[in-house]
């Protein structure tokens, strides 16, 4: 399949940054800097508290607003959690599930990632599903085994229809917030592996059409080289997404 036929998505993950007032300003500035960049979808995934301000600021622009997490139950005694229905009614289109920081600090497992993904998809959201190996696994030479297992477990039971709304973000944990970045060839190798696993689960047409991002310290300096690889269809951007000018440069590279 021609890579150009796949949707390229550049998504920012603000993590725990930006007050609502700061979010409004950042969304407006990002929208202005990326206006007319139709070569890719532009998404900003913001903290829950920022959602109303961000959604309002993004109205009428090319910027889509996403959330950073979602619970797998519709409602109940889950203090501090937010349901998929709540996100949909708030104007959210995308949600990140299974980010390495959620797995590392908040006990996320492949089982809960799978349940959250299903809940989000059933509510009509598009899911950016994160997976990737830690440094010890990379050094032990078992990246392919770990990533293949994660892909299969996280997608378990998701229908052929709903898989169309899943974007997979390969994020080597050793490159998250460390300043380290997988080389373009390393990113290509693992994204290609993920695509082959998806092909085994859903068939070649689905795998060829799936957007697979790289998320591991992609920035305005290295984005062009990473995005130039055949199996890298976008990026999940951390720190650089907090600076509209840098984020816009990554969007430009994706054109």
Keywords:
single chain; 255 residues; alpha/beta; eight-stranded parallel beta sheet; 8 strands; 42% helix; 15% strand; globular
How would you characterize the overall build of this protein?
The structure is a single chain. The protein is α/β, with parallel strands linked by helices and 255 residues long. The chain has a single domain (3-253), classed as TIM Barrel (Alpha-Beta Barrel). 42% of the residues lie in helices and 15% in strands. It contains eleven helices and eight strands. The protein has helices at residues 20-34, 51-58, 84-89, 100-106, 110-122, 135-139, 143-154, 184-202, 204-209, 223-227, 244-253, and strands at residues 9-13, 41-45, 63-67, 94-97, 126-131, 166-170, 212-214, 234-237. Strands 7-6-5-4-3-2-1-8 form an eight-stranded parallel beta sheet. Strand 3, helix 3 (84-89) and strand 4 (94-97) form a beta-alpha-beta unit. The model has no long low-confidence stretch (mean pLDDT 95).
CATH superfamily: Aldolase class I
- Biggest beta-sheet profile: 8 strands, parallel
Low-confidence stretches: none
What spatial form do the alpha-carbon principal axes imply? globular
Number of domains: 1
* Structural class designation: alpha/beta
Helix content: 40-55%
Number of strand elements: 8
Strand order of the largest sheet: 7-6-5-4-3-2-1-8
Task: Estimate what percentage of residues fall within beta strands.
Answer: 5-15%
> What radius of gyration results from the CA coordinates?
17 Å
Count of helical regions: 11
SSE series? EHEHEHEHHEHHEHHEHEH
